[in-house]
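Narrative progress, year one. The postdoctoral researcher (J.K.) led the effort to move from monomer predictions toward full complexes, under supervision of the PI. The following entry was the first complex the group processed end to end, covering 229 residues in total.
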Amino acid sequence: KAGVTQTPRYLIKTRGQQVTLSCSPISGHRSVSWYQQTPGQGLQFLFEYFSETQRNKGNFPGRFSGRQFSNSRSEMNVSTLELGDSALYLCASSGLTSGDVKLYNEQFFGPGTRLTVL
Amino acid sequence: GQQLNQSPQSMFIQEGEDVSMNCTSSSIFNTWLWYKQDPGEGPVLLIALYKAGELTSNGRLTAQFGITRKDSFLNISASIPSDVGIYFCAGRGSGTYKYIFGTGTRLKVLA
């Protein structure tokens, strides 16, 4: 089974621009979560989607948004980029809510997108 | 942002030694996950724990779900050079789909 894929792997943008990152979950997984990882703040939760609905949101400004498509693929968008947005953005997918707690709870990460804002 | 307390922050050990690290929370969790992350890569799931007191092994790795449900422990036995990396814990309580991550333990193994 293919793992979580994220595109692009690396991205360089300038302040004020906007960026869209893509995540394809493991086949059959319906939950996708996004995280921001920086040396200073560690792994911070951005949001989680399940069946095209945002179920949970972290404490990030409205410049950070996301969506999920009917095939479970997800995108996140950051508008008006700031220098502090430079980070590794990670996507994680989880299995179906099938009553099997293992499938539901285990999150598998993609390789991440390294965003650099100049 | 919210993070779990994870210790030690970093450690140097000799190859062949056993390693212990732990993670503590101020909240009760229903699930604990342990990950390892190599430079430039995403975290890889090592062990998942679902019940207080549960002890689960994955090869040389053993993790435990603390009985208070506010902590978890990871042990690595007979460490080898490829154990080098950053280990993260992650916990989730009831009624939320959000995981909170630990601050990470950076492990360096001296051959």
